[in-house]
Specification:
By secondary structure, the protein is an all-beta fold. It folds into four domains: 81 residues, Sandwich (Immunoglobulin-like), CATH 2.60.40.1120; 89 residues, Immunoglobulin-like (Sandwich), CATH 2.60.40.1120; 101 residues, Immunoglobulins (Immunoglobulin-like, Sandwich); 93 residues, Immunoglobulin-like (Sandwich). The chain is 2% helix and 55% strand. It contains two helices and 30 strands. Strands 9, 10, 12, 13 and 14 form a five-stranded antiparallel beta sheet that branches. A four-stranded antiparallel beta sheet has the order 3-2-5-6, with no helix packed on it. Strands 8, 11, 15 and 16 form a four-stranded mixed beta sheet that branches. Strand 9 and strand 10 form a beta hairpin. The longest helix is centred in the middle third of the chain and has 5 residues. The protein starts with 16 loop residues before the first strand and ends with a strand. About 4% of the residues have low confidence.
Amino acid sequence: MNGKVPDEQHIELGPEYTISGRVVDGQGVPVVNAQVNTARSRPRPPMSFSATTDEQGAFTLKGLPNGMFGIYVEAEGFSSSRRPNVESNSKDIEIVMQVRGGVSGRVVQQSGAPVSDFSLTVLTTHRGTPQYGVTGKRYAFSDPNGNFEIADLDPGSYVLMADNKSYAPSYSPGFRVDRDIVQGIDISVRKGARVFGQVVDLSTGKAVSNASVSVHGVDFQKNNLNNLFGGGLGDPNNVPKTETTTGRDGRFDLLNVYPGDVVLQVKTRDHIARYIPVNLQPESRADMGTIKLNLGGVLSGSVTDSTGRPSVGCTVYLTKQSAAGFFNEQLTVNARGEFRYSGLATGDYDIVAISPSTSGLLAFPNESDGSRKRIYLTEGSDNKVVLRIPSSE
């Protein structure tokens, strides 16, 4: 500092704003100890603040900058509540929270005897579709009389799935939750089917170890999982997924599989998946015999820039349109700009590489987005391709 005293610097802070109000339930009763969170939506940058309601349900969010805010409120026993577009310095805001409801009942065997240890998965039902929706709620119970109670459900329509390793997964009747505990939702479980067999390679006849074997509904298709929107959906026929992998001898054994008309999916990374329909009865045995898998096609290669250097961080999309549906898979190239797809069925494929600067923004890449090629693949073939992305400079 050469012995000099630095000049004083004055920082002028802008005015502070507040947002205040009350949190109440549907009857106007204050909700105590609710967590009130807010985040500025505009102007940028976003900023977050929080407060807790007092005995009167009142809250004050302090130290806010000027702007527009969104408010999100959480409280035990209540569904979360949101209030968008609240201006700074707003007062007397009233946020209404709905009391959560729940469900209670028993899990019993066909004879009426209780099942003491079980898990329950909560699924939603909706008008216009028979397919259940996923909630992410799953509970484990241990009760000598098979009793259960779930007390944190938002208003809506639901069904429960009970599972225990000694029985097939079973569904409850549908029910509607409002504010109270819905009582008397009993679930009767029964023994499922046993499905077993062996998986071998078609060309060599050798056992295929570590093959994935799983059970699905009859409308299940591999393309449903590979398309851009289907990965988050459940089984189209609400068949609970039961899965295993083959041993070193290629054998598998699935116990207590959900009875009914189902499809057995058998796949590996390098083989063409098989989909085998089978009708399963409760407590039946289904010997699938020897299931032969054919090696799929391989498509590998690299992505380079216009100078031939590896284009690291690119995303490679592989798509195929067929009568079975729309197939879509994507990979990120490695540090050498390389990629590899395997287990591909015969057909025409479009492959396109997208640079890192645009890959996260594109749902449907087109020819102008990068380097595209169309390739015809056959099962068991090994194909290589080089994709070049024009330099952005």
